[in-house]
Write a structure and sequence with these properties.
Chain B: Keywords: Cell membrane, Membrane, Transmembrane, Transmembrane helix, Transport. The complex is a heterodimer of chains A (about 300) and B (about 325). By secondary structure, chain A is an all-alpha fold. Chain A has helices at about 20-30, 35-50, 55, 90-125, 125-140, 145-155, 160-185, 190-195, 200-235, 250-255, 265-290. With about 325 residues, chain B is an all-alpha fold. Chain B is built from 13 helices and no strands. Chain B is globular and about 85 Å long. At the A-B interface, helix 5, helix 6, helix 9 and helix 11 of A face helix 1, helix 6, helix 7, helix 9 and helix 11 of B.
Chain lengths: ~300, ~325
Amino acid sequence: MGQASIHATPPAAVPGDKVSGPWRDAWNAFRKNKTAMLGLGIIVFFVLIALLAPLIAPYGFKDQELVNRLKAPSGDHWFGTDDLGRDMFTRIIYGARISLWVGFFSVIGSIIAGTFLGVLAGFYGKWIDMLISRLFDILLAFPSILLAIAIVAILGPSLQNALYAIAIVNIPSYGRLVRAKVLSLKSEEYITAARAIGMTNTRILLTHILPNSLTPIIVQGTLGIATAIIEAAALGFLGLGAQPPDPEWGKMLSDSRQFIQKAPWTVVFPGLSIMLTVLGFNLMGDGLRDVLDPRMKN
Amino acid sequence: MNSYLLKRIMVLIPVLIGMTIIVFSIIHAIPGDPAETILGQKATEQSKQALREQLGLDKPWLQQYFNYMGDLLQGDLGTSIRTKTPIAKEIMPYLAATLELTAASMLFATIVGVNAGILSAWRQNSWFDYTAMVIALIGVSMPIFWLGLMEQLLFALKLHWLPSIGRMDQRNPVESITNLYVIDTIIAGQWGQLWTVIKHLILPSIALGTIPMAIIARMTRSSMLEVMNSDYIRTAKAKGMSQFLVVYKHALKNALIPVLTVIGLQTGALLGGAVLTETIFAWPGVGRYIFEAISSRDYPVIQTGILIIAFIFVLINLLVDLLYAAIDPRINYK
């Protein structure tokens, strides 16, 4: 067979093409999904609260008024006060910053590390794949919260270390996803074609494989933020995450536990906030999955 | 099947070895001097040296690991720094308490989850379906430690229906034989005590079982919906079989296969969640045992506790895989 030269002619740009496209279509489908939009609404609400915290919060989150200890919700203190007389509403608002920050950045960390390892394993195969896949198996052999506890027990309790721990324990879920995607893409004809025209591995990875692995990562990442927020709150609750006086929701719950009967509002509001935020990310993640990756359903 | 079992166990060996390396490394990964971290800054050099010798930290790393593995294989799980008791002996009652709690939680999650899923699919788009699925959605988003606190607030502190903490009435302790109190009280024929034990189990097992319940309900629903649309169900309906029999006898059998996997995986996940539930309900299980060890920097207990839970987790996953292969003839594991 003679050598064939490949001349790829890009299709001529259609005027107004920007209006339609895979992302645009996805957004249109997403918009029709009511529960997903509700999730997005909840997330936007908490993000706004977090960003505007200094403007919205009526008090400082460290401000103590010892005369007003454990006061029930009122006009002055919408969500009541805690055992040090701090305004619960203010602390919940600032708490949104911490939870979203940990949720978002731990997931970004897991995605970066997971993608790197997943690509290495899937693309280069052989012993690298063996090694990385076994590492994932081992990490997945621990219940995630327990592994996070172990990591914090080593590094010492702090919000920063809780974030690292959560990022580390979730690496395998992204790594496996990317690896599987790379493996399936690798045998696609257009990758073979790209190789045939002499594209380097790095370029194939960057221009073909990674962009095509993006959708499952986005879906998993959105659901992953929900998990990460709960894990961070759990570590905070166990005293292994945020430290006082940081207004972290999980830590607020454990600090107020002993007053549950006398001042239930100190326990009700932080928990509700965790639940709502997590619900928002779960709803949005489910919606994104339906829109971006229908095959992943169930 | 046997060759599959063998292959599956062979794959597990590197995972188990990897697990021991990770757990073994916990103590070595502590930044700075582990002996000082454990004993505190005020400890004398003499006591620190004694601890290093006790934990074998003064030997080369590889030798330490092989000693550790040798001890593990002989059933020596180390000694608690705090209580100076062998962990293998100390951990048994804690382990039994956790097993009892996880079993009760899973029982709750399976019975409620599977039935809610079936009814939801059967009456698709009815108010029951919507309500059940909204509850399931909230359930998966629920921080279980908060759910536990809310249960305590409502059912123990406000309504006084159920005890808020512990496994048993302290004034009337159960004479432990297996350390599984439900079984112990049945063996002893102490029905009053059995009721007290069950009452103590209700709140923590609902807290721990809620997330798996929600996941099982969602899985059962979608799996049932898929099966209900298949030809053999249409045939069963066409020959005039009652709805109930079609759903529970024909559809459920096939729909349960993926559900079973979820049940198994969730059982493993419960072991992690147990740390939180046990802390809230002062349940004397492995989770609390590990948590207390963290507070007192009892690293051998942390290591062993985590290893045991991870080991049970892996074992459950193996069993699920095997069960899956056994009940679904379509799966070919050659």
